Automatic annotation (TrEMBL):
Family annotation (InterPro entries): Carbohydrate_kinase_pred_CS (IPR017953), CARKD (IPR000631), Nnr (IPR030677), Ribokinase-like (IPR029056), YjeF_N_dom (IPR004443), YjeF_N_dom_sf (IPR036652)
Domain YjeF N-terminal: 9-204
Name of the protein: Bifunctional NAD(P)H-hydrate repair enzyme
Catalyzed chemical reaction(s): (6R)-NADPHX = (6S)-NADPHX; (6R)-NADHX = (6S)-NADHX; (6S)-NADPHX + ADP = AMP + phosphate + NADPH + H(+); (6S)-NADHX + ADP = AMP + phosphate + NADH + H(+)
SUPFAM superfamilies in UniProt: Ribokinase-like, YjeF N-terminal domain-like
Binding site for (6S)-NADPHX: 54-58, 118-124, 147, 249, 312, 364, 431
Co-factor(s): Mg(2+); K(+)
Its EC number(s): 4.2.1.136, 5.1.99.6
Function (record text): Bifunctional enzyme that catalyzes the epimerization of the S- and R-forms of NAD(P)HX and the dehydration of the S-form of NAD(P)HX at the expense of ADP, which is converted to AMP. This allows the repair of both epimers of NAD(P)HX, a damaged form of NAD(P)H that is a result of enzymatic or heat-dependent hydration. Catalyzes the epimerization of the S- and R-forms of NAD(P)HX, a damaged form of NAD(P)H that is a result of enzymatic or heat-dependent hydration. This is a prerequisite for the S-specific NAD(P)H-hydrate dehydratase to allow the repair of both epimers of NAD(P)HX.
UniProt-annotated binding residues for AMP: 401-405, 430
PANTHER family xref list: ATP-DEPENDENT (S)-NAD(P)H-HYDRATE DEHYDRATASE, ATP-DEPENDENT (S)-NAD(P)H-HYDRATE DEHYDRATASE FAMILY MEMBER
NCBIfam families: yjeF_cterm, yjeF_nterm
Chain positions recorded as K(+) binding sites: 55, 114, 150
Amino acid sequence: MRLFTAAQMREADRLTIAAGTSGRELMERAGAAVAEAVRRMGGGPVAVMCGPGNNGGDGFVAARLLAGHGTAVTVHLLGERQRLTGDAALAAADWTGPVHGASGGVRDCALIVDALFGTGLTRALDGEAAAVVEAINRSGLPVLAVDMPSGVDSDTGEVCGVAVRAARTVTFAGAKAGHFLLPGRTLRGQLHVVDIGIPGSVVAGLDSRLAVNGPETWQHALPSLEEDSHKYRRGHALVLSGPMTRTGAARLAARAALRVGSGLVTLGSPRSAVLVNAAHLTAIMLRPCDGAAELREILEDPRFSVVALGPGYGVGEATREAIRVAGASGRGLVLDADALTSFEGDLAGLASALGGAPAVLTPHGGEFERLTRGADGTRGVSKVERARAAAAHSGAVLVLKGADTVIAASDGRAAINAHASPYLATAGSGDVLTGLVAGLMAQGMPPYEAACAGVWLHGDAGLRLGPGLIAEDLPEIMPAALRGLADKP
Ligand SMILES: NC(=O)C1=CN([C@@H]2O[C@H](COP(=O)(O)OP(=O)(O)OC[C@H]3O[C@@H](n4cnc5c(N)ncnc54)[C@H](O)[C@@H]3O)[C@@H](O)[C@H]2O)[C@@H](O)CC1
Ligand SMILES: [K+]
């Protein structure tokens, strides 16, 4: 599913109106969709809270249609009626019932329609607007939000001061980034996208390179297996282990790479840790590797297709040098944790170490902040734009992890992942993700698609396992996750 910004929706509106459908007609259809959703939620009595713009106009239309079908409706307006303009003023004029103030509170209703603010929110809610939103939330009544829960920024998903908590949201023509970025995702309830007559060609023509992460965008690039395949044709991932007391992370990554289908996986281990690693490995091979010079020798073997580096590896110049060597080899790279922290405040240094190699960086929020300190465009904007900026600066694919993981490529493509489980917030979970992405890249999947697929499969594993999951379980559930994916139409 593609996602849109407020500016793109305004553009779609403009093009549709230019092609002959009036704004008032669009509002009529939007209001009709809201009225229909109210009926599906059990009907009235309904309080419709209208704001000063077109979101409020949608509310007036819904109120008129519901009342016309016999539903008990009260309308409340935030602001003065005579200050309404354009289509919203026309829609309000068609409402013949009384209009109450918004601050008096709602009484004797079973459902609230939140038509206060939609994509036109420009600043934080305060004063009367904030008080009305707080009263809606305090009422404990189910809320149907029109387009966005009021107070949620449709581009960033952020709460601007305060925001409505909705049970459902009806949105028009296409979903917005703010419906999928946190905390917007948790405030919008169930999301319904309805067609209000904006032509498909207009929507298709919008320059949105943002989507919800799902198989439809990367399934075509998943590794396929021939009947007569051979392990040497399924890729070979090299995962670098940390020293004696920090080896578990790399083994988790290696196991995940093997489970996701890499034909061979080798763990490169410092000599100090070879015995402890050997004691825990069976199908995964082991090679001593102490530092960058030895890594260079290992990578002379052309069969290694990908290097995963970072979990437990240690922070410092030795790590930076290992990344330079891996980057210069042109192999696929997956960098996490210590690999990223080794370039604290030096995204440009990391970009130059990568040397244009196909790479995926998988920071969580804290690692991202450290890595991008001082880099342009990585502050104060949406999570999507921050990830995009870092991808553009580094030339790598960014996986900005969290409950709303964002994957961004340097060419502007981006995806927000919603297929995940909160139980994935557990020690070692990120190491498994590193291994999944590395294992997919080892089999020839391009970095952006491998990152999206890895994040999705990781989330799928979390959803399958649920409460009680630990990181060790995640690679073991991959056969079921992969089979489920193969069964998808
Ligand atoms: N394709 C489209 O774009 C369509 C949009 N429609 C509706 O129109 C909405 C967008 O309408 P608008 O652009 O008029 O925007 P909104 O109705 O979301 O809000 C704009 C109004 O709120 C005021 N405002 C913004 N932030 C405020 C704040 N923090 N405190 C107090 N006042 C604030 C503005 O001054 C303006 O009066 C959509 O969300 C949707 O519900 C529909 O009518 C149909 C078609
Ligand atoms: K709203």
